Amino acid sequence: MATAKAAVMTGERFEIREYEIPEITPDTLLLKQELGGICGTDLHNWEHQRLSGEIILGHENVGIIDKLGANVKTDHLGQSVAEGDRVVVVPGTNNGAYGFIQAEEKPYLRGGFGEYLYLWNPDTVFFKTEMLPEAAVMTEPFTIGVHGVMRSGLKFGDTVVVQGSGAIGLLTLVCAKISGAGRLILVGGPPGRLELGKRLGADLTIDIADVSDPEDRAQLVRDHTPRGQGANVVFECAGFLGAIPEGLDYLAKDGTYVEMGHFVDVGTFQCNPNTMFMRKNLRLEAVWASNAEHFVRAMPVLEKQEFPIQDLVSHVIPIDRVAEGFNALHNGYRLDGKDAIKIAVKGE
User: Which DSSP string corresponds to 199-215?
Assistant: First the structure.
């Protein structure tokens, strides 16, 4: 019986376990996992213990087709597929999402932090790609940026602020840039992330460690907007409750605030509807994950390779270092002596 390793989240611990590699059916396929990104959602679920049971996390996945069911002939776009092809996976299915399924329930290996990923659901959506794995693993988080910018109604020449310089924030910055943003302001840290933000198109970066007072940050944002009136669109990608009232303060009258950072319940914040929302006559949007249509829109943009998307992968770690990756993102965004942006887990 062939087996494969996977990292299992059990409460606050990660355990390396061996699982039987499932036999494919005519409608399924087995991937030899190349990379699985550690998402902010994974981190927050671990920090706040929002998932019960034992889970093989990992929903940002790219792998090589190892075994292909007889009925699986094409990807979602009708491209023919064969064993040895590289594919990216849409995590959501009509029967649960990859990376959120109980580890000890058969069939096994349905999360990205393992040597194999079994695409057990015949309705799984996947796309063949020739992108390097370090770029392809960014597809799922890129689709969150696609979703957020589409919902924002961003107009050509708008001044845009992105709160949060993790992968979602940086990729949202790219999506806003190619959608016509006139000026892009990135608020976050640490310095390594902000420097990459400049390379990706940020006109101004604000380090929250250097400018520690939220009121000072809000004034600095306004100082860099037309007539000092504030931003047209603000994207909250930080995933911290305090970012929301601060980001609302960045907005100009009639602006749009897009909430993208809280896919996990981390609590509540104090809200004054009159001063926060109504007086600015703002529009509030929020996105929930992404779907196949966002992948369809994202793939040709990524495959043009006009931006160094692969450079967001700051670290590639083996499965047995998953706990170190989570701890680095929890404590200061540093791993192996450098700033962490996207930490990806390699399949072997």
Answer: HTT-SEEEETTTS--HH
Indicate the helix (H) or strand (E) that contains 251: strand 251-259
Q: How far is CA 188 from the centre of its chain?
A: 16
Dist. CA 244–CA 239, nearest whole Å: 9
Radius of gyration of the CA atoms of the chain, in A: 20
Assigned domain for 116 exists:
yes
Q: 3-state DSSP call for residue 183? A: strand
Residues 164 and 206 in one domain: yes
Q: Are residues 335 and 269 in the same domain?
A: no
Total of domains in the chain: 2
Any idea what DSSP says for residue 95? Answer: T
In a domain, 11, yes or no: yes
Strands 13-20 and 3-10: antiparallel
For residues 122 and 66, the answer to whether their CB atoms sit within 8 Å is no
Residues (pLDDT < 70) of the chain are none
Q: Can you give the CATH number for the domain in which 263 is found?
A: 3.40.50.720
The secondary structure of residue 94, as a DSSP letter, is B
- CATH at 48: 3.90.180.10
With respect to residue 35, please indicate whether it lies within any of the assigned structural domains: yes
Query: In the block, which residue shows the tokens 């892009």?
Result: 184
Closest to 36 in 3D by CA, of 9, 63, 68, 74: 63
Strands (E), 190-250: 204-207, 231-236
What count of residues does the chain have? 348
Q: Cβ(126)–Cβ(139) under 8 Å?
A: no
Q: Give 198-222 pLDDT, tens digit per residue.
A: 999 999 999 999 999 999 999 999 9
Instruction: Choose the final residue of a domain: 241, 256, 286.
Output: 286
102 within some domain: yes
Q: Where are the alpha helices (DSSP H) in 19-166?
A: 40-48, 133-136, 139-152
Q: What is the pLDDT of residues 33-53, one digit of tens each?
A: 999 999 999 999 999 999 999
Dihedral, 164, 290, 300, 204 alpha carbons, nearest 10: -10
Domain coverage including residue 97: 3-131+305-346
Q: In this structure, how many other beta carbons lie within 10 angstroms of the beta carbon of residue 226?
A: 13
